[in-house]
Amino acid sequence: MNKQTDQSELSRIIAQQTLLDERVVEAFIGQLFTEIEKSIIVDSHIKVDGLGLFRVIKSGDSHRILYLGNNTPIDKSVDLSHINREPINVGSNEENINKEIQSYTLSEEGITVNEQEDKSLNNNDVNPQDAADAIVIRNFLDSEKNGNSRIVSTPPTHHRKLNLVKTCIITLIVLALLGIGYMVLLGSSVKPKEKTSKTITFKELDNADSINYSRIIIPESDVSLQYIAKTYYGNDIYWPYIYEANKNIVNNQFIIQAGSITKVPKIAVDLVDMNNGNEASIAQALGDEIYKTTR
Amino acid sequence: MDESKLCDNIRNSLKAKGINISEKDVHNLYIATMSSIYSILDEGKTVDISDFGSFWRKKTEPASVTFFKPIERLLERINTKRK
């Protein structure tokens, strides 16, 4: 279908244009494609101005070459001004070139000419893998055109690290604020330890009147009647009984001074029953009466 | 690869082989090679590069399509050296 143009014929054409020896041109072409091959192997890709992009891709267990042809002519012309000979117009063959055509297409190794032509003529038959490859190549070309490498187009590592550090700092600040808030709330809700939690010890004396008193005690520090009632009756509501037995040593604050001999009256066993609401209310009434009379 | 870098590499390699050509000539050869390949392909012909592969173009509307088929030995070299 197509007429073949081999490298020798190509060399002849180029030699005419450049006024150089055909053997030199032949060597140049050979070296040109050797360099292209080197780049394909080492860098996996090479973009040759005026020819297109070659890219190595992995296909199964082997590699193949993906080629994206450049369908626009090179926008430079041969300059023979340094040669003292009649220059030859290089651009004569370019006159019929449709400069509006600017498209990139895909070719893959191992597909026959007819198969590829059919593919190019019928877009519906385009292999999805090839289409995906073409998109990758186009993105690559776009990034090169914009002067950006693919590495540059992705977020740089140091930016990600910076974002991570920022996130950590913000998290620490939030945690610190939460901690401070918690401590403030805790501090406001927790009251200082009351004196009630302070253990007051009593020294017990021999009880000569065991009929009326269960114990004779001497507090080692000032103590309230409620505390004594709580200690010996199990409930501070029965403090009036302590009061009645120790009127002479109780001050107007219902405190018994340290070192005072204090009598703990014997009361009925059912009276110290916490569930005995009747006795508790009696004690309560008695307490109220004591308050009224002493104040 | 940048065109000037490619031309430098070619010039140095040719120099190592005993072929001394000026920077200007290498540049001219590069331009002439690309424009010639383009013109030949545009005429519907196939360009065969020895020990490398073949280029051809299918002219369609609205866009033309350029193809490349590497020779088997090129693929063998690539697969051997990249493993």
Report on the structure:
The complex is a heterodimer of chains A (295) and B (83). Chain A is α+β, with helices and mostly antiparallel strands and 295 residues long. Among the domains of chain A are: 7-68, Irregular (HU Protein, Chain A), CATH 4.10.520.10; 202-294, no CATH class. Helices cover 44% and strands 15% of the residues of chain A. Chain A has a 4-stranded antiparallel β-sheet. In chain A, strands 6-7-10 form a 3-stranded antiparallel β-sheet. A two-stranded antiparallel ribbon of chain A has the order 8-9. In chain A, β3 and β4 (62-69) form a beta hairpin. In chain A, α1 packs across α2 and α7 (225-232) packs across α8 (239-245). Chain A is rod-shaped, with a radius of gyration of 53 Å. Residues 86-126, 147-155 and 190-195 of chain A have low confidence and may be disordered. With 83 residues, chain B is α+β, with helices and mostly antiparallel strands. Chain B folds into 2 domains: 1-43; 46-82, no CATH class. Chain B has a 3-stranded antiparallel β-sheet with strand order 1-2-3. In chain B, α1 (3-16) crosses α2. The longest helix of chain B has 20 residues, at 23-42. Chain B starts with a helix and ends with a helix. The model of chain B has no long low-confidence stretch (mean pLDDT 90).
Short description:
In chain A, 44% of the residues lie in helices and 15% in strands. Chain A is built from 9 helices and 10 strands.
